[in-house]
Amino acid sequence: MNSNNSALRAGPARPGGRLMVRLDAALARLPRTLPTALTAALVLAGCSLAPVYERPAVETPAAFKELDPAAAARWQAAAPAEHQHRGQWWKVFADDTLDALEIQALAANQDLQAAAARLTQARALEGSARADRLPQVNASFGPTRQRASPASQGLEHDASVSPQTLWRAQADIAYEVDLFGRVASSVEAATAGTEQQEALFRSVLLALQADVAQAYFEIRALDAEQALYRGTVDLRREALRLIERRFEAGDIGELDVARARTELASAQSESLGIARRRAIAEHALATLLGKSPAEFSLPPQPLARVAVAVPPGLPSSLLERRPDIAAAERAMAAANARIGVARAAFFPRLSLTGALGYESAELGDLFDWSSRTFLLGPLAGGILSLPLFDGGRRQAELDRSRAAYEEDVARYRQTVLNAFREVEDNLAALRIIGDQTRAQDEAVSAAERTARLSQLQYREGATSYFEVIDADRSVLQQRRLAVQLDSERARAAVGLIRALGGGWEAPPAAAAASAPAALASAQR
């Protein structure tokens, strides 16, 4: 602000009351319609042009299709508390090693740290949006060197005008009156964006917990398979020694020896293949824990059969429990508020500005009482601004905002559909795996009896060694299938808990205690 544009200036050093007299006199010279316009603008301030937000309706089934009817009756009678916070749900498996791995992952996983940083960014953007509701005050100090034109001083065109230096120390104040709710809609959009990032953080947290559990159970299942093959290799090595002795004694032909060697080498090859798969799975788990593979090693421990009953509740509760559904819903709310921002661009914006400070031609006189000055402005032509022609830019932005909202509505409904599908998939998997496991246990028992009978008959010379090998191979195959079913059951249980949005037992403080580093970073 330079002196030529100063509409109001205080006079020489006088009592402070004279300054207010000058200000009142200056305001009296303003157009008589301005107070009326300002009053009307203040009345309109805060009127939002955003559409009234309502969460779109989605079709929700009355019950899950794949839920066993008997289990459904039992679980609904138990009335699981869906409203409780989902915390350390993995403790339902009662595995101390898994508990320790989950805590490590929540403290050091880099994807979780990135999600926490995104949440912090969203909170900062919300704070920036809220700052627009308050006046903005700035202070400035410094000189200006200027030369006014003769015409601006009412002099002859060839009159000599000397340049002058003007020192200023002043505070500038600016405030936008929220006509038509532009600022309010921006704050609402930023708030919904923060809530969306909070839900996405919980979604990443839940996905990490589930990934760690499934990777852990995969390694344990490979340990169980490795134990099977280790025992099979030992038995076939012992069988090979016996067959070689019988061959040397002339009781059998070389064909049985060749078959025994083939089966031993095949079992050793399969065992090495399982070792390779376990190494890769262990490296993947190390990455989830935020460690390099060289820093992490998990001692072998065969998988025990998991027997966990997961109460799915009612399908309607899924809309409240799933963090990805909450994130999709908050994205819609933010998009709806941005429509209000785009609509407000078609209406006037009222900006109130002013400055108060000191100015003088000499630095030594800058803070004298007679050097005080103030400005209320812009007093004409700038207090209300309205673009009259922009080539369709505002309409295009409004159309884009509406289309973005429709996109988020479609994403929300698709997210809900995917959530129902994931729950149904895992319910079906657990139900069918339960039946399949019972049948597989019977197959293992039958194969083991067949193997015992074939060995007895071979010793008595009633059958060939080929029958023994075939029976042993069947036992190994059936046992391996049983271990794989146990692994699938464990992973399906984890998948169902993840699809339902987490567990039920933990108190609200459990999640904060389980992920201290990421949550602390997000809350700063």
Write up what this structure looks like:
The chain is an alpha+beta fold. It has 13 helices and six strands. Helix 5 runs antiparallel to helix 6 and helix 5 runs parallel beside helix 13.
Short description:
The chain has 524 residues and is α+β, with helices and mostly antiparallel strands. Strands 1, 2, 3, 4, 5 and 6 form a six-stranded antiparallel β-sheet that branches. The longest helix is centred in the middle third of the chain and has 68 residues.
Secondary-structure element string: EHHHHHEEHHHHEEEHHHH
Average pLDDT over all residues: 81
Q: List unreliable stretches of 5+ residues.
A: 1-34, 74-85, 504-516
Distance between the termini: 39 Å
The SS-based structural class is alpha+beta
Work out the strand percent. Answer: 5-15%
| Overall strand count | 6
Relative helix content: 55-70%
Instruction: Round the Cα radius of gyration to an integer and report it.
Output: 39 Å
Number of helices: 13
**Major sheet details:** 6 strands, antiparallel
- Label the overall shape: elongated
